[in-house]
Structures are given as C-alpha cells and as structure tokens.
Amino acid sequence: MNNTYIRFSTRRIWTIGLAGALVLTACQKGTSGDDPEPNPTPTPTPTGEKTEPVAGSGTAGSADGPLATAQFSQPKGIVLDAAGNMFVADWGNERIRKVSVDGQVTNLAGSTKGFIDGKGAAAKFNEPSDVAVDGQGNVYVADINNNAVRKIAPDGTVSTFAGAATQGYADGTGTAARFNNPRGVAVDAQGNVYVADMTNNCIRKITPAGVVSTFAGAKTAGYADGTGTAARFTNPRDLTVDGQGNIYVVDSDNNGIRKITPAGVVTTIAGGSGAGFSDGAGATAKFNEPKGIVAAADGTLYIADTENNRIRRVSTTGVVTTLAGDGTAGYAEGATTTARFNAPRGIALDASGKVLYIVDQDNNRIRKIALK
C-alpha cells in the first residue's frame, strides 16, 4: 500500500479509463426468515448520480482475461495491495482471483473445493468469502466452510494462518484455534486481523503471531451492546477497520450496524429494530440482512443492504438514507433511483471518497457510483 495515504482498513479496486487503460483508485475497507412487507419509504431523490459497470461480463464462469470479458461466480470480497493489484474472493469458483496492474484477471490461488495448502492452483479453498491485505502484500482469506483464515504470500503460496477444518469455538494459536463459518476479514495498521466469526456470533482478533482471541461478542447469539464478551451479535458477516482502529460490523441477522472501539466497547449505530426497509435516524432505520460495509474518511458509512437490493448511506450522526437501488432484484445501470442490483455484497470507496464500488454478487459484476 502507498505509505503516504493508504489505511489498512482500505479496500481498493481498478476502474477503466476512457482509453481503456486501468486507473488505480483506493477504496476503504463476506437470508433468514420471511421477506418483510414492502415499506412506503420513497426511492432516493435524483441527484445526478448513476451506476456504471466496472468489471465482469455478467455471465457466471471462471474465464480469465481483460476486465470486461473476465468472468466471476458469485464474487464477494475485494481488496487491493500496495502495488495496486486487486484480489477477489471468487466464492463460486473456489478461487482467489487477481487483477494485475495491466488489467488482466488471473487465478492467484485455488481450483476445486477442498482444504489443501500449497502454491497457486495446488491450494484449495471451500467457499472463500472475503479478503484483506497487510502492508507486506499478504492476502488473508475468510475460508468459510474450512473454518479457517488462510494466508497467501505474495508469491501465491497458501498456508493456514488460524483455525482448522473442524468447526468449533476456541481461542489459541494458529491451527489450535477454532472458528465456525468465518465470513469477513479486515486488517488494521498494526497487522492484526479481525474476523467476523459468523456462526460463533462474535468478532475474533488474530495477532501477527497468529494468536486468536475473542474481541467482542460470545458464542451465544443475541443482540446487546456492551464491552467485549458482554456484547451480543447474531451472524455478523462483514467488518472494516477505520484509521482510528474502530471496527464497524454488519450484524446481519440483527439487521444492525455496530461499532466496536479499540477498547472493545460495542454500540449500535443504526438499525437493529428488525428486518425491513426504511430510512431514518438510528433505530428507526431498517435493513434486511446487510452484508457489506465501508467507512469513508469523514466517518460516513456505506452499506450493501443485500436482501433489499439497495445501497444505503449512514451519516456521522446515524441518519440512514438510500443511495441507490429501487429494491427490485435485477440488473440495470443508470440513475441511482432506477438502478437495480441482485444481492449486492462487497463495497468499497476510492481514495477521494467520491467513487463507490459495489460487488453485485448475483449479477457477477463489479459496479461503481460517482458520488456527488
């Protein structure tokens, strides 16, 4: 990462310039119950913002090649390293894909489903969901069904950083620790890896030495603010770390956005009052299984409200508005008021905070919005 501006919570992606060249931008940085009744909240007020395609042909597949013709299969997490290479957790293909600075998509690691360490395609994952990168260019992978956090060295060699194939809940060092469907990963400025340990309903911390501890939450599902293990989550799926070391979590099955301070104090920023769709302040706002989150430099949060097929914005005072999506699952570019998504998942901002990128999972595309 560029030492002059990059933060370790940052997720970055490439966009396509007018001449077809890749342009580097830096962005901050993994269904339950019945669908709620439609809410009369109006669609977003037109602002001149629009969605545009960035990468992926839209057809599920595993083809490498240029961004526009490359294929993904239900992609989820995204991140970029210091050199500007993008890594994608290509969930359906059981691979971690790399988009190099020349705009070519290749396979960094993985092939078929399994649990094998090794180099490149010799390694195997089991539904990788999210990726994060440290200052040395190591990529960390939330390997859901292997219940492990994997580490990919810059040369493509995959090792198991923490956890093992056995589901469980145990702190410890390296493979002695146990996870249960880890969904999201993020790295802070000190190289600590934070994990949204979904089915264990908690946030875990892994030091650079591989020591795993429970940072917030406990194995018991619930919904409670508090400090450390006194707090409760239900199926947290994604998280990001800001420049001050605060962690923001999409507490998916509680339909809330949670904040954890460096001291482990958990509070609810927005939502948490049940599944649905409504804008508003704090608990009056409603989400439906949000699964992606990113924080802007000014503290504004952007949320991939997955089951609502919308992109939401949370102000620094906790006021939620709808940025894009009309709520109908589909694929349509154009004005944010009429744009359509199909299970938006990963989400990222560029360095300026003016361009928002969305992994549109079930459309197998990466899209963007130039913010006004």
TrEMBL record:
<feature type="repeat" description="NHL">
    <location>
        <begin position="233"/>
        <end position="263"/>
    </location>
</feature>
<feature type="domain" description="Teneurin NHL">
    <location>
        <begin position="172"/>
        <end position="219"/>
    </location>
</feature>
<keyword id="KW-0677">Repeat</keyword>
<keyword id="KW-0732">Signal</keyword>
<feature type="repeat" description="NHL">
    <location>
        <begin position="179"/>
        <end position="209"/>
    </location>
</feature>
<dbReference type="InterPro" id="IPR011042">
    <property type="entry name" value="6-blade_b-propeller_TolB-like"/>
</dbReference>
<dbReference type="Pfam" id="PF25021">
    <property type="entry name" value="TEN_NHL"/>
</dbReference>
<feature type="signal peptide">
    <location>
        <begin position="1"/>
        <end position="21"/>
    </location>
</feature>
<protein>
    <submittedName>
        <fullName>NHL repeat-containing protein</fullName>
    </submittedName>
</protein>
<dbReference type="InterPro" id="IPR011044">
    <property type="entry name" value="Quino_amine_DH_bsu"/>
</dbReference>
<dbReference type="InterPro" id="IPR056822">
    <property type="entry name" value="TEN_NHL"/>
</dbReference>
<feature type="region of interest" description="Disordered">
    <location>
        <begin position="29"/>
        <end position="68"/>
    </location>
</feature>
<dbReference type="Pfam" id="PF01436">
    <property type="entry name" value="NHL"/>
</dbReference>
<feature type="repeat" description="NHL">
    <location>
        <begin position="113"/>
        <end position="155"/>
    </location>
</feature>
<dbReference type="InterPro" id="IPR001258">
    <property type="entry name" value="NHL_repeat"/>
</dbReference>
